[in-house]
Amino acid sequence: MSKEKVQDLLDFIDASPSPWHAVTTIEKRLQAHQFTKLDETVKWQLQANGRHYVVRDDSSIVVFIIGKKPLAEAGFKLVGAHTDSPGLRLKPNAPHAKDGLLRLGVEVYGGPILATFTDRDLSLAGRVSYRSEQGEIFSQLIDFEQSLLRLPNLAIHMNRNVNQDGLKLNKQSELPLILSVLSNKQIPQDYFLSLIQQQTKISPGQLLSWEFNIYDTQRGAFWGVDQEFYSNSQLDNLASCHAALEALLSRPETSDCTLVCAFFDHEEIGSESSKGADGSFLSDILHRIALATETDIEDYQRAMALSFMISADMAHAYQPNFSSAYEPDHRVMVNQGPVIKVNANLRYTSETLSQAKFISWCEQAGVPYQKYSHHSDIPCGSTIGPMVSARLGILTVDVGNPMWAMHSIRVSAGTLDHGYMIKVLEEFFWT
Question: Both 141 and 258 in a single domain?
Answer without folding.
Answer: no
